Amino acid sequence: AYRAQEISTRMMALVREESGDLSHVALGTVLKQCESALRHRADGRRVQLITKADPADARLLVHAGELVQMLVNLMANAVDASKSGA
Q1: Looking at 3-78, which runs of residues are DSSP E strands?
Q2: Which residues does 34 contact at the CB level (< 8 Å), separation at least 6?
Q3: How far does CA 24 lie from the centroid of its chain?
Q4: C-alpha count within 13 angstroms, C-beta hemisphere, residue 49
Q5: Contact 37, 9 (CB under 8 A)
Q6: Entry pTM
Q7: What's the rounded Cα separation, in Å, for the pair 48 and 41?
Q8: What confidence category does residue 78 fall into, taking pLDDT thresholds of 50, 70 and 90?
Q9: Residue 8's Cα: distance from chain center in Å?
């Protein structure tokens, strides 16, 4: 429960940054949030989940909430489609 609360809090912080307008977000931070949200799912399927961002930590001008939602969906689909133990 504490882990779920921590993940929700961090993801909501990213979403709150988006007040309907574009905002600058660090790609590395977004990827870490997505990975954290999907870690349990990947571990349950015995799938290795690896995210990498440019060391310069690229900043994107985006709707942060929409980006997080899109990446979580894509990564969840990839986890679900991956062979167990991969």
Answers
A1: 23-26, 59-62
A2: 51, 68, 71, 72, 75
A3: 16
A4: 25
A5: no
A6: 0.69
A7: 10
A8: very high
A9: 11
